Amino acid sequence: MTLGPVRQILRGCRTPLAFRFRDGSIVVASSQRIRSTDGGRTWRPIPFPQVHLNTLELSDGRTRMLEYDPKPIPGEPGVYRVTQWESRDRGTTVAGPFSEGRLRLPPERFPPGGVRWFHGNTIETEDGELLSVMQDRSGEGGRFEGWRTFLVKSVDGGVNWDYVSDVASSETIEDPDNLLQTSGWELYYAAEPFLLDLGEGRLLCVMRTVNDEAGGMSLDRIGPPLEEYHDLFHAVSGKGIRPSLMDLPEDRYFEPGPPSSPLVASRSVDGGATWSPARPMPGPRGCFPRLAESDGVLALTYGGLSGVPRWGNAISFSLDEGETWTEEVVFGPFLTTGYTGVLATGPGRFLCLFDCTPPQPWTNEAAWWIGAVDVTVERN
Q: Does the global pTM surpass 0.85?
């Protein structure tokens, strides 16, 4: 594996969203948008008007973009209005928003008052159907019981969507080694999912579990206070760490704390109709997992390796379709939101995206930047 140098490709931005068109061009989007037509080597600003997690170029050449937050339709239990945009020139011009689309969920499984988000990604299967992983937060009496990930399907090019199956939740995760409960973090259980099509109806879904944004922060979730620091990419003063949750000394510095809780993964062998119990992954952890495949190599990026403060962005590889993973390589060793991206740019070649966002919380926009790293994997 060869890791290229870190390049800064956007300033004053965080949480990169990255997608690749069928012609190989790449868009990275945040509060600014840039495009590359040479695999991420050079970039130029573009007036891309809409940016969404669920951006997908279909086989017929149209690009569909889904608003992440569908709205319930009064008087129609389980039915939500889906807002979307469309481009026929790979984002040079975009039409919309259109709101004729509908998301139909079983009302008995998705009671009123919950939160349902297109907060994963969308894929097009070999038979032309679209599959998208969403996340739901429902709790009896409004009580928070964690996020669950579920699968929806569209057979009309992304206009209308129907529930298919639950992927993972606090009730279906298997944790024989008790890795989640002993991590020391509150848990989301199954959030920020990413779906990868392995072909022939086989799907892999990887999800975030950590809830490091909850109240009740304590010093056992943070590194020890230091009077001096080595590198401000790794350290932040007490006043820069969630002042609404903890009162830390301003003249002390804090480096990354204990490891984040593991990611979980689940599989389907029948196109998403059923799923294996999600299990914690032995190495990958943190936030916002993203997957890409090239030449039989699976690449998984994730961030927020430790905290608080939230620090580090890493990549791991699999040569057996996600059954086992290599030791991680940290490609972005900075204070970060933990939101990464990874795209295949050629045989065994990947482009990794991340952000650097000191201090924490993320209030100093001028200090933010988005970086890119090229990674090459050579198979023996």
A: yes
